[in-house]
Amino acid sequence: MDLKEKLVSSFLALENKVDIDSYVHDVRTDAIKIFEDQGFPSKKEEAWKYTSLNSILKEDYSVFPKQENALEFKDIKKYFIHDIDTYKIVFIDGKYASHLSQTTHDGIDVCLMSAALSKPKYQLVIKNYFNKAAEKDSLTSLNTAFSCEGAYIHIPKNKIVEKPIQILHFSTGNESATMLQPRNLVVVGENAHVQIIERHQSLTENPVLTNSVTEIFASKRAIVDFYKIQNDNENATLIDHTFVKQSRESFASVHTFSFGGKLIRNNLNFYQEGERIDSTLKGITIIGNKQHVDHNTLVHHIEPNCESHQDYKGIFDGKSTGVFNGKVLVNKEAQKTNAFQANNNILISDKASINTKPQLEIFADDVKCSHGCTIGQLDESAMFYMQARGIPEKEAKALLMFAFSNNVLSSVKIPELKQRITKIIASKLGVNIGFDL
């Protein structure tokens, strides 16, 4: 039995053991039919032209981990942003870890997706928002069919969340190979503000495949800052889908830091459904060996007088492969749009490669849109200049590469997170430089 057949047959078992209302049941039933019809994506599809899942799908993944592996905070402390007080929603092998978490219902809801899907008091929000932003492609639909756990975050009107929210997913290797499908729903009310940090971390050498979906809804004048830390081991695969729907005058940003994993695919879609909206998509990728990172982005400008800013930096070593497929779609009605898109890459190794495809589809005539990409190597004259002033070659390379990626870091609004990312970058570049940010 291949993985597709295993998943379809496992769906019935899941439906019998989870407690959900009829609306969610119908959504999940429709979703599994979509996955059954479409199957896993292949390189024959334009959006997956440079990313193959064949080697990953050969594993015999456990869909429902049979046992829990207890973890203590001291074992995983290094993966938390522990310098500041935060709300925490922690999952171990797909199951909620209450002893490691700090949730709340005090004026805001920072809790579990399983509770939101099953308890009557959440039904109105679920019916209005669950699966309303996510696309109906095969992998997103697969997640919808199996969605039963993840983070549920609801910030009511005029609420400013005083501290960031961390969502952490750990896999422990209880099974020889594990497949996880977390589902997050973030609803931010009018004039509300929230900061969220998400991380998927494998603690095992066993293969792990995570198919994650996050839906974010930013109401009028809401502010949402979302940060993704991807620094996993080389047996972990992450396929991450994030869908952001914005209402009038809202601001939403997603920063993606991709530093490790066997294969990472980031599907990031923004939909601007109102005027004077600002959307920011930024990312830094630093990988080596045979690692593969694919960023697939879409910003859909639907209404006039809106802005979007995309800036992705990539540094590739060894036999690593990078992919950037960024699309800006401007509707005919979306006049006065200002859209910027850039993808700049450095190849450290002759065997590393990058496939980049920035796209603009503009149907309005009064817009300011630009896109571009670069692929190159470190500036030899700059290297010579720094070495001539006594900076060793290794440190000179690191400084140049850090400067290359720093404009993405500069827009991170949580100082402790910025320091953590800086340390990871220094470690990836193989130096110990005290960057003071």
From TrEMBL:
SUPFAM superfamilies for the chain: Stabilizer of iron transporter SufD (SSF101960)
Pfam family membership, one: SufBD_N
Listed InterPro entries: Fe-S_cluster_assembly_SufBD, SUF_FeS_clus_asmbl_SufBD_core, SUF_FeS_clus_asmbl_SufBD_sf, SUF_FeS_clus_asmbl_SufD, SufBD_N
SUF system FeS cluster assembly SufBD N-terminal domain boundaries: 22-167
Span of domain SUF system FeS cluster assembly SufBD core: 174-404
GO annotation (BP), single: iron-sulfur cluster assembly
Similarity comment: family membership: Belongs to the iron-sulfur cluster assembly SufBD family.
NCBIfam families reported in the protein's UniProt record: sufD
Protein's name in the database: Iron-regulated ABC transporter permease protein SufD
